[in-house]
Amino acid sequence: MGMMGREITLSLLRTGLIKPWSALADLIYPPACAGCGVSTGAHRSLCPACWSGIRFIERPYCEVLGSPFSHDLGTGILSAEAIADPPVFDRLRSAAIHDGVVRDLVLGLKYRDRTDLAPMMAGWMLRASDGTIAGCDAIIPVPLHRARLFSRKYNQAAELARHLARLSGKQLLAATLLRTKRTSQQVGLGARARQDNVRGAFSVAEGRAGDVFGRRFVLIDDVYTTGATVVAATRVLKKAGATDVTVLTFARAVDDLI
């Protein structure tokens, strides 16, 4: 039997072994909507009602901040915010607006141990990355402080980054950027308070400067609100020699369309 024949045989054997276990798992844990829990035909999926409630962020949007426009203003258009106060990162992209089902998915991943949601969410993020993942050198998650990581058991940004790296084949640098300052929860803080809270919170790990210098990165987080966290993290990466930083989040807070 040739090499191709052996590979086909192994593939069939794996399929034959996996299918009974998958069927048993479906009996014990039937596929359900990740948003509302009603029965669905597949795991890691949404029912039609939840799917229709998601507001995906697609063009037209600001080329720098990714802020969605209410109507098409032409190619390369920037928002007034991006012109008046250019961010330290090079661009921002997000998969969906942070409300309804999208907010529930974020909360499930972040606080309810729903790490099973990360592959689906990462798939949406890859689609929303606008080619920036394809053009980057590596993917970096926004890190948690070790004390918070110990209490939470995992970093939701790192879970998303891990699956994005798997889907794209890009290098994952999960230990290059560190959160060295234990910050307060950002929820409930105003924009200025958020900036003060994360000032000096990040650093490049000792001996890891070579990971950063002269390279292009996609920085991963779950939600973009005021941007204080990703701005602080980007400043550290740029200071260490990063040539380009794209911020990619699953969701972003949007008040009104421009």
From TrEMBL:
Name of protein: ComF family protein
InterPro entries on file: ComF/GntX_DNA_util-trans, DZR_2, PRTase-like, PRTase_dom
One Pfam short name: DZR_2
Lineage: Bacteria, Pseudomonadati, Pseudomonadota, Alphaproteobacteria, Hyphomicrobiales
Domain Phosphoribosyltransferase: 192-251
Family classification: Belongs to the ComF/GntX family.
Domain Double zinc ribbon per the UniProt entry, residue ranges: 25-72
Species assigned in the record: Rhizobium mayense
